[in-house]
Amino acid sequence: MSTQAVTFTTGNPAMSKIFSNAAATDGSWSNNTLTDTIAGQQLGILIPQAPLMWGQLEYAAGACAYRVQNATTLQVRTRGFGVATGYNAAEPTPLAQPFRVSPNDIVSVFPLAVAAAGNSSALAWIYTTKGAELFSAAAIPNAAATEIKSAVNEQTLGDMFFGSRLNKLCVQVQDASQLLAVEIIDEMGGVVMTLQGGFRQTNLGGTCNMFNLDASGLDIVIGKGWKLKFTCQTP
Q1: Can you tell me the mean pLDDT for 111-140?
Q2: How far apart are CA 112 and CA 84, in angstroms?
Q3: CA-to-CA distance for 169 and 171, rounded, in angstroms?
């Protein structure tokens, strides 16, 4: 499997630390934890009880998600997406959920490599009343609506979140690719909702360096057999 270098800079108005993994495995959470660049320690061991307000993940190429998780309770403290190296915002990026570091907290990443020609890799954080989960697809053919499933166990939207309400979804498509549309499909094949995306700021016309689509304020009751499909286009 391919690997890539990933770094995560996080802090507060009084301090910051950099965590890294020089060979994070694409398409996996397993063994993809980051340690600080000076002492080689996990986040919770290095700065326990420190308040963290902002953080920025950088990856080499493709797409990448991260989470800060308590290694004992498995509670996710915060989560988000990275940016391609060199495409940080002009101001520090606020964490989705600022938090105070627990001694058991670790940072882990889920990168995806650039897909083969004519395809796009994609990630999506899905937020529901049953919790949040990362969905992924490593190869979405150009202009073809393709189902995206849970990154952990490849469950469909309906299998994982049946009976819950979809509140928000955030999508990141690989560098230089365009997200044409996100479709929520019911068990009969009908389109419940279509959302249009776009480019990230690595391309002309992009409005954000992190998301191709960030849709919040949704209120969709998810049925059994429902699917989430992406349509993308890469040069």
Answers
A1: 97
A2: 12
A3: 7
